[in-house]
Amino acid sequence: MTWIYLIIAGILEVFWATTMKLSNGFTRLDFSLATLAGMILSFLLLSRALKELPMSLAYPIWTGVGAVGTVIVGAVFLKDQLSPMTYVFLALLLIGIIGIKMTSGH
Fold first, then answer.
1. How do residues 33-76 score in pLDDT, each as one tens digit?
2. CA-CA distance, 67 to 17, in Å (whole number)?
3. Which end of the chain is more exposed for a tag (fewer CB within 10 A), N or C?
4. Which ranges of the sequence are coiled-coil (predicted)?
5. Is 106 a residue whose pLDDT tops 80?
6. Handedness of CA 81, 14, 65, 11 (dihedral sign)
7. Which distant-in-sequence residues (6+ apart) come within 8 Å of 62 by Cβ?
8. Where exactly are the structural domains of the chain?
9. SS3 sequence, the chain?
C-alpha cells in the first residue's frame, strides 16, 4: 500500500502543477482551490509513504514522477514546445527513477 500512496502522491504533484498553471497566477478561484487541494493531498500521501520508506527513496521517486508527468502533461495537453534533447533528458530521468527503486532493496 505504501508504494500506491507514493505513486498517487506523485500523480497529484502533476495535478497541482497543472492546475497552478491553469490558475493564471492564482487569479482563477476554481483552479487555485484545485491547486491547494492537490498540494495538500500530495503531501499527505508522501508523508504516509515516508512512514515506511526511507526518505532517500521516497522523495526522489515522488519528485521524479511529478517531474516526468508534468513534462508529459505540458507537452501533450498544454502544447509546450520541447527540444529533442528534452526527451533524451526525460528518458534519463525515468532511468534514474527506476534505478533508484531497483537498487533500494524495498
1. 999 999 999 999 999 999 999 999 999 999 999 999 999 999 99
2. 10
3. N
4. none
5. no
6. negative
7. 6, 9, 10, 13, 46, 49
8. 2-104
9. CHHHHHHHHHHHHHHHHHHHHHCCCCCCHHHHHHHHHHHHHHHHHHHHHHCCCCHHHHHHHHHHHHHHHHHHHHHHCCCCCCCHHHHHHHHHHHHHHHHHHHHHCC
